[in-house]
Amino acid sequence: MAFWLDLMFGNAIGFLSMMVIFCTFGIMSYLMWMFVVKSAPTK
C-alpha cells in the first residue's frame, strides 16, 4: 500500500494523473446527474 501511495503522490506526474482521474469521475457524475434530472417526467 505504501508503494502505491508513493507512486501516486510521490511526484508531480503521479499527482497530476490522480487529479485527472478524480476530475473525470466528477465530470461524469455531474453529467449522469444532469441526465437523470432532465429525464424526470415533469408535471
TrEMBL record:
InterPro entries assigned to the protein according to its UniProt record, in alphabetical order: DUF3149
Domain of life: Bacteria
Cross-referenced Pfam families: DUF3149 (PF11346)
Transmembrane segments: 12-37
Protein known as: DUF3149 domain-containing protein
Keyword line: Membrane, Transmembrane, Transmembrane helix
